[in-house]
Each structure stands twice: as structure tokens, then as C-alpha cells.
Design the sequence.
């Protein structure tokens, strides 16, 4: 059923859990796995400062994430690749980029971790996972943060 799976990661423990899930699913189904990291600097963090150091730091983080993800793919003998996208202009829509990558790669499924934010934190920080699911033209599996009760139901 799922032959091409896209998983969005950001270096967080929740994204790592989503990657683990996607990797297991891809391995079990002999599917290809496309790992995606979006370089994003929220506009609030750059204000009047030069954004280049922030962008460069995220590029370095992205390359580190790419190396770890490729190692995991190779270790698990799962066919796949890792893509890093830069979100320009700054403050753009990460969820849109995830869905665009899924469309371009012709993914059958998107896997993404949620950060479990509630209330004001969710309103002020937004939810990439929620926006991704709302905009998606394909199935999306939302993986809750590790250690939550809901996590046991997902696996």
C-alpha cells in the first residue's frame, strides 16, 4: 500500500520518534523513505539582526541531521534519501514545504511528529504538523511526543 513514505524531521525528540516509526514502516513494507529537513528561521528571532548566522547554523544542523539519517537508512537497509529545503522568504510556511516535497516526490504517506503544545503555546507557536495535515493531499500519520499516553496507541 505505501511504497513511498516521506518523514519530516527537525532534530527534536518527537521528530526522532516519527523517524523511527517511518523507518520501521518503510522496512516492513520494503518502501522507499524520503527524509525531509526544512531550514526555517522564524521572523521573530531575526528582528533587526543579520539573519545569515542563524541560517548558517541551521544549515550546519541540517547537514548533521542528514548524515545521521543516511546512516540510519543504510544501517537498516532501507532505500531512501535525505533532502534539506531552505524556507525562503524567512517566516514562510514549513507545512507548505513538507506538502510540496511530498507532491514532488510522489509520496504515498507523510509521517510527522507533533510537539503536543496546548493552549496559548499552540496559538502563539502554531502547529506545523496540524497545518501539514490540513493542507495534505495524501494520508498523514501524526506521531505524538514520546512518553505520552497517545504514543502507545500509535504503535
Sequence:
Amino acid at each position: 500500500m505505501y511504497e513511498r513514505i516521506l518523514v519530516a524531521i527537525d532534530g527534536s525528540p518527537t521528530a526522532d520518534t516519527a523517524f523511527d516509526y517511518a523507518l520501521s514502516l518503510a522496512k516492513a513494507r520494503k518502501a522507499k523513505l524520503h527524509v525531509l529537513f526544512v531550514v526555517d528561521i522564524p521572523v521573530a528571532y531575526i528582528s533587526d539582526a543579520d539573519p545569515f548566522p542563524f541560517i548558517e547554523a541551521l544549515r550546519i544542523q541540517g547537514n548533521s541531521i542528514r548524515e545521521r539519517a543516511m546512516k540510519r537508512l543504510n544501517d537498516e537497509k532501507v532505500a531512501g534519501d535525505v533532502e534539506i529545503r531552505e524556507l525562503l522568504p524567512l517566516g514562510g510556511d514549513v507545512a507548505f514545504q513538507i506538502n510540496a516535497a511530498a507532491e514532488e516526490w510522489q509520496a504515498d504517506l507523510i509521517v510527522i511528529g507533533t510537539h503536543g503544545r496546548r493552549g496559548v503555546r499552540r496559538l502563539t507557536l502554531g502547529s506545523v504538523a496540524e497545518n501539514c495535515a490540513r493542507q495534505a493531499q495524501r494520508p498523514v500519520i501524526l506521531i505524538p511526543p514520546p512518553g505520552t499516553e497517545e504514543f502507545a496507541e500509535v504503535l
Notes: The longest strand covers residues 32-39. Confidence is low (pLDDT under 50) at residues 119-125, 151-155.
